[in-house]
Write a structure and sequence with these properties.
44% helix, 217 residues, TIM Barrel, alpha/beta, binds pyridoxal-5'-phosphate
Length: 217
């Protein structure tokens, strides 16, 4: 478990970028990790976690919440409309808002319950056909549409193409966020979180560098 190592690297990257200590939140991505390694990180005092799939999160986190207070859960993977209610009950933030239908479903449930997680709009900065997210050219309009629905949009999220220099994608996301007055930037994973911090990330999503390689079976 190298939680403390990642925390030190985040602190060093904040300092190198001239950013305030603690300005970057670490989301420990626990998807497909065995319970005992997740529990090591909980025992070390960390409380902010990310999960890709609602189903997996629902099978894991209510149990941990019986033992550990203050857990903050972020849903970071693609969200199907029929899982929205469950996601909103479980999570304090959803990072994968990427289409009007999803925004509409969240708005209806938020109206009904009076509560809504913090939302991040996913932008497909590499314009990859297989990847979720709104296109950069559609982002401003979609942000406005979500705001029109009174949704609590906190920021933007991206996953750069694996073969490309991530810094360009982080810079593009930061530019779109800035012109839309959005403070949150969910960007940077195990291999590139320091670059993301240099470009202004407020939330880095780090999995394998904390927990080790995932069991992909
Ligand atoms: C799995 C995942 C991560 C973490 O990836 P690592 O390379 O293990 O740090 C971050 N963001 C999303 C959306 C993911 O699905």
């Amino acid at each position: 478990m190298s939680l403390s190592e990642i925390q030190s690297r985040i602190a060093a990257a904040e300092e190198a970028a001239g950013r305030a200590p603690g300005s970057v939140s670490l989301i420990a991505v626990s998807k497909m990790q065995p319970d005992d390694v997740v529990e090591d990180v909980l025992r070390a005092g960390h409380r902010m976690f990310g999960e890709n799939r609602v189903q997996e999160a629902a099978g894991k986190w209510p149990r941990f919440r019986e033992t550990y207070d203050g857990i903050e859960l972020h849903i970071i993977g693609p969200l199907q409309s029929n899982k929205v209610r469950q996601a909103m009950e479980l999570a304090q933030a959803i990072h994968s808002i990427d289409r009007p239908k999803l925004a509409g479903a969240i708005a209806r449930i938020a109206q009904e319950t009076g509560a809504c997680p913090d939302l991040f709009i996913q932008v497909n900065t590499g314009e990859e056909p297989q990847k979720a997210g709104v296109l950069p050219s559609e982002a401003d309009a979609f942000v406005a549409e979500c705001r029109g629905l009174d949704l609590p949009v906190r920021g933007l999220m991206c996953i750069p193409p694996v073969e490309e220099e991530p810094t360009l994608h982080f810079a593009l996301l930061a530019k779109i966020a800035e012109r839309n007055g959005l403070p949150g930037l969910s960007m940077g994973m195990s291999g590139d979180f320091e670059q993301a911090i240099r470009q202004g990330a407020t939330h880095v999503r780090v999995g394998s560098a904390i927990f080790g390689a995932r069991d992909t079976h």
